[in-house]
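Supplementary material to the annual report.
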Amino acid sequence: MALKIVKGSIDRMFDKNLQDLVRGIRNHKEDEAKYISTCIDEIKQELKQDNIAVKANAVCKLTYLQMLGYDVSWAAFNIVEVMSSSKFTYKRIGYLAASQCFHESTDVIMLTTNQIRKDLSSPNQYDTGVALTGLSCFVTPDLARDLANDIMTLMSHTKPYIRKKAVLIMYKVFLKYPESLRPAFPRLKEKLEDPDPGVQSAAVNVICELARRNPKNYLSLAPLFFKLMTSSTNNWVLIKIIKLFGALTPLEPRLGKKLIEPLTNLIHSTSAMSLLYECVNTVIAVLISLSSGMPNHSASIQLCVQKLRILIEDSDQNLKYLGLLAMSKILKTHPKSVQSHKDLILQCLDDKDESIRLRALDLLYGMVSKKNLMEIVKKLMLHVDKAEGTTYRDELLTKIIDICSQSNYQYITNFEWYISILVELTRLEGTRHGHLIASQMLDVAIRVKAIRVFAVAQMATLLDNAHLLTGNMQRNGICEVLYAAAWICGEFSEHLENPMQTLEAMLRPKVATLPGHIQAVYVQNAAKLFATVLKNQEGNTDSTTAQETSQLMIERLPLFVQSANLEVQERASCILQLVKYIQKLQQKDIEVAEEVSALFAGELNPVAPKAQKKVPVPEGLDLDAWINEPPSESESEDEQPKAIFSKEEPKHSRPRHTEVDEKELARRREARKQEQANNPFYIKASPSSQKVYQETAGVEHIPVVQIDLSVPLKVPGLPMSDQYVKLEEERRQKERAEKKKKEKKKRKEKRSGRGKKHDSGPESEEDITPAHMVDIVTEEMPENALPSDDDDKDPNDPHKALDIDLDKPLADSEKLPVRSHRAAEVVKSPTEDGEMESVASQEPKKKNSKEKKEKKKDKDRERKKSKDEKKKKKHKHEEKEEDLLRGQADEPVVQSEETSEVVAPPTSTSAEVSDLDFWLSTAPVPSNTQEAATVAAEAAPVPEAASGTAPASEPDEPKDTEMEETKSSKHKKKKQKKEKEEKEKKKKKKHHHHHHHSDGGGEESVQNGTVEEEEPLPPMSNYCLLAENSYIKMMMEDADQVCDIQGNLQDGSQVVVSVIFENKCDSFLKSMEFNVLDSLNCKLQRPEGSGPHDGLTVPFQLPPGVSNEARFVFTVQSIVMPQKLKGTLTFIVKNEDSSTHEKLDFKLHFTCTSYLITTPCYSDAFAKLLESGDLNGSSVRLEGINMPFHHLLARICFHHHFSVVERIDSCASMYSRSIQGHHVCLLVKTSGQTVSIDAKCDEPTLLGNVLDEIKQTFSQC
Amino acid sequence: MIKAILIFNNHGKPRLSKFYEHYSEDTEQQIIRETFHLVSKRDENVCNFLEGGMLIGGSDYKLIYRHYATLYFVFCVDSSESELGILDLIQVFVETLDKCFENVCELDLIFHVDKVHNILAEMVMGGMVLETNMNEIIMQVDAQNKMEKSEIKTRHILSCIPQYKIQYHSHHSCHYYGDLTVPLFQCTSRIRDH
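Predicted assembly:
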């Protein structure tokens, strides 16, 4: 053994490490690939060794090679081996390698689940950290599902280092396993207020990322974020939040109103440019959402524009860029305020930085008006001429077209000008956007009837000079234009001045060099032209010209009949035969023009691009249904889809010259190269496009020299668009003059009558009339088309799956899968009462469906399917629940409350939804942001408030002393509060309703990690009957563990008691007052200023049959002993005719368990705690326990607030913590019907009492 | 979200590549080449933002880069990240490297990619910014390095643990890359306050 180790170390000495590898590669510049392949061989040897150090070294080198582009997936298993090393050093190497080369289809990932889980719960925080970092890169849906619960527990780890990583990785988990979002969200939300800024920042990061994709689900968090925004000083967090608000405001304009003030303050105060910029951005978003109205917002716009101008004028190119970027956002809604900075933006067009020029171009798009369109386009055309790079020039071209064609050619007053611009653009060499110009030409010619004459004339000249465009076939991007030209000339041939000439131009032999689809259009439209020419000529007496035309067609068309392009060939041969037939008829002196033109009669109308999609599906037509019975499985397998035209040739069919084998070819090539090298007349290859020719055998003998056409292509006879600018100017002036004349006349007439009218002033948008009547034919839509326009969403977007309502309370079925130690045993829970029986009978069915679901998931990863399945399942589930409900309709409400603990977090969020309205509707924001923050903090039901203090008593507390400053505002607030109360009440009712539903299916409560089995548990409730009389019933929940540790470190120990009041009589109960006789140790928290014996008003009234819940806060000094408090409830019973004062006594029992808080604990920490020796032991034995072990554990967890640390077979360790920080550890063992509990705690009295209470719990059942 | 972080030198040689989305090795190399092509042809005094290339991103993505001596640091991010914030983050990254390697230069990155990865892992996780505070980052990196050292020490293995600063003089012969020992980080570079 020792020898082996020594041997390993010596081997290690001779191994290359990463540095040696890098050095080696650098020393082998010439034969790098060869060197690396030997290295890979070495690595393969190293990976075969047992020594983990050697393996890790090898994997480390592989990671480097991966960066250089080498596929290292073959070593995936070795990477997993290194990952599972116990040494951090190697583990880190393994995880790094995995994060660089693992992905969803790496199959060994399946093997990592348990290793990662182990690492996540490692006592060493860096093991956990490294595992989280790695996992964030290669998490798969399976890993996400299996580890979601572990990661969620890590979110409340003691170390902030782990917490922040765990929080951050949750986003990836959500993406891969969307079902985890709802169960995990409450905790994620909690982390927004984590004491550690890093964790807080991570939580903000994740929620922002989620909210960006589905903002509407996160609106309810607005108050919380608002509070963070006004309190945080971390610019990273601020930027994220401000960006988030930018995404939220479009959904809630009221939010925008609230934001403007603090944001403007930030803009004024911050010195960080990044923050300033984001503030401006969000203010812009707010302004966009507010659209109009509020007059004082123009000031905000001005502020933004002014700040942006400063950025744009800055010498820092980055700021300039961002300034322009933000400016383009303002442009959309407030074009006027941007237009005044036109000079600045045009100036940016000349910037040397391409990114900036592009941004400036974007801005131009929105700055055009009817007035300045021609001018701006003229400027852009100048830039087109100057631009050197083709990409920028192409960008300019598309921008010109975008600008002109935007909103249905709104700004074009003269389409002749536009057509000539398009024609001018065809001069661009090497542009990729020929088709764009072509489609514009077609669009304009079709939709603007008045322009057709002009367009046809222009297109005819284009066709005539086609050789200029296509001079070099390599630049054939632009020849797409000819497609449009040919079609326009053919379709609207009646407008042609000289159709014969155009026909001739379209049948030139050179046309055959054009791309096939263009030739096809040529041929087809030549036929159209032919029809027109015939029509013209037949009117004349001379019939020979007509025959000549036919002859021309017959002579030229065979060229196309020989075309290799199917479409061209087909059309040409059809038309050739047709013309031949026509010629025959012509020779017989029969008039054919009418019939021929009938071939092309009728006008084509433009159809909207989305028209087809918008045709509604007729009623009763199911597109998914089979028309015939689907073919059976076996049939479809045999059948191959039949090729339409010819059988697909096998791929490996050899080319014709296979006689010459590869070697021979290579030899010849070599010889030829030699010859060429020695030949001084041979033009040597340059690394240009000619190279392509050299590869193909046979052509390379011909030296190809590219002839560069340096002469600018000027198509003769084309009007320059500039002329139009001048003409247009003159025309407008004339128009204006005429208008003035008219007005003067009018004025003169009027002057005699009434006073003067205001001067027409400078020309406004509306004054400019188009040069000629332009009727843009609107695109046709099918009848009863659907108006919806939401067909642009990408169905494959992974974020779509995360569009989940987070405010809905959690259902019982929603929980993260928890690991179980063993395969779930099939244990029938012993039935005790009817209710339990019903639950049990439900069990197998449910399990089946769950299993099925799992299988399905494994089978195919299509999320959709499994979702459908789930939906179905849920549906079934609900039905069952209803059945159950009917069966036990008379069950007391107590039972329905069992899940209250589980549901608690989401309900508090749902309360927030209604409170969002409240928050948004609160009085205008105070000028001081700090004040705003406090108001928000009060108004916003922060989780602390919701759980720590009793929200019910909140309205009564006169803590808002400053409220009394102005009576009116107080009044307002009160009113709002009332509203809030009412809303809360409604919510509460819903809440109860929900419980009823969840009753039947309530098998287990999700308390992080406490419940391990997937088997149903008997329903449990912490509510017990407090007191009851003929009028009212009071139920108390075991003093709840709502207080968080933070809270009670500061202000002692608080315990919250939830009491449900149920009105049992037919009368109205009001003025309820809750009072408790305080003891020395335990006091009811009363609002400031009230005496120690005053009662608390219950903040609601109870109509007949209604129940509602109120919470009361108690302060407890010592928690080691149970406590009993006497109390009285007084209330007024109101009938139609009378009202009586009634009273009900009760006793509040504070058990010691109620001071315990469920706290998760890790096995290592647990072990340390036990070892520390600070704890005193005690034990108890329970006899005759007749329930499965997991039920027992669940009961302890539920009733006594413990969490399971570890469970091995029939033995489990459990942990809990008191609100004052006492540790309580249990070791529960079972054998037969005896359960022994060994317990340790640092406070023996407390422990004794807790054990007594546990004993009592089990003696009751 | 950050989609990718690339470091390459003035000749396009990759020094670190971290993709937060999966691509095949070939595509990765193509992306690096394309990005280098886009970034390298830009002047020194133009803005640090670039609309993404064809391969990586799309309209929502931007390349944000900084050029230090012989190296380009390129982040490919989507619109949820603040542009100026990422610029600062790159600065923090380079400063952190400078602290960890003591006057970082290209050679440090050439020979210690793994270390650079480990430092980066403390800043960015799964494409999301994890930590921006340099002291915190350095503290965590140091703690992990200490752990690594102690592990190796206890095992008495006869291997030379690579020291942070190795002797570079023997490699000076390669002129192709220019001077690789130029410190990346100069005091003159702007630090925008954050």
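Chain A touches chain B through 75 residues (CB under 8 Å).
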